[in-house]
Write a structure and sequence with these properties.
The chain has about 160 residues and is of the alpha+beta class. It contains three helices and nine strands, in the order ββββαβββββαα. A hairpin with a 2-residue loop joins strand 1 and strand 2.
């Protein structure tokens, strides 16, 4: 995982309750029963030859099965996650109904050493969160993106 790079789009919207962000719950058996630290910005790995912003838009489409929203992007910079992956994120103001998401899938051997390959959704659910709740459930390093977004967007 060290040296890997991911890029993603963090959707946000203004509601009467305040700023909300759209996060995805990581799919697959390792995260099935976890909430804290199991939610992420929709993102994915990319080749260094591909511009990160283009990768973020492509990965949004792959992860959520929906075209990325048009609109002004806010560069939220990058963070380095515990496993060594560098994640770069842009925020886009948009509304999206989580019920319309058709997640991409991945295949892995499950159970381990069983010889059986199973398909799992990249994200098994998507939901809107207020910033406070989002900070409680998002992958720890990605909380920096929430802080950076709050600095750019009036609450």
């Amino acid at each position: 995982m060290t040296g890997a790079r991911s890029a993603g789009l963090l959707l946000f919207r203004h509601t009467p309750e305040g700023l909300e962000v759209l996060l995805g719950h990581m799919g697959g058996p390792f995260f099935a029963r976890r909430d804290t630290g199991a939610w992420t910005v929709p993102k994915g790995e990319y080749d260094p030859a591909e511009p990160a912003r283009d990768a973020a838009r492509r990965e949004f489409q792959e992860e959520l099965g929906l075209p990325p929203p048009d609109g002004e992007t806010i560069a939220l910079g990058e963070v380095r996650q515990r496993g060594g992956k560098t994640v770069t994120v842009w925020a886009v103001e948009a509304d999206l109904d989580p019920a319309t998401v058709v997640p991409g899938t991945f295949t892995m051997e499950w159970p381990p050493r069983s010889g059986r390959m199973r398909e799992f959704p990249e994200l098994d659910r998507v939901a809107w969160f207020g910033l406070e709740r989002a900070r409680e459930v998002i992958v720890t390093a990605q909380a920096a993106f929430l802080d950076r977004l709050a600095e750019h967007s009036p609450l």
